[in-house]
Amino acid sequence: MINRDKSIMWKSPTWIFAIVITLSMAFPAPDALARQSDKSYELLPAPDLWYNDIDGIRVGLRLRGQVPGTFNDGPHRLDFGVWLGTWFPTYPVSYYVKYTEPVPAISDFNSEGSISFISSIRTGFHRHALRFDKRWQEGFNEDVFREFHAESGGHRRFSHEYLPFPSVWQNDWVYYLNAGYEWQRQIAGQKGLTNVKIAGNSGIHLEDVYGRMSLEMNNKIEFTRGFGIHVRGTGTFSSVNMPLEYGLLRSMASPIDWMNSGFTRAKGTIPTPWMESGAVNIAGGPSLRGYNREDIKMMKGGLPMLFRNMFSVNAELDYPNPFDRAFEDIPVLGDFLRLRSYLFYDGGGGLTLEQSVAADPVQSIAVTVIESELSPYYSNIGAGFMLSLNIPDYLGKPRGFVIRYEIPFWLSHPENGHDRLRYRGHLGIGAVIGL
Question: Is the model's pTM score more than 0.90?
Answer without folding.
Answer: no
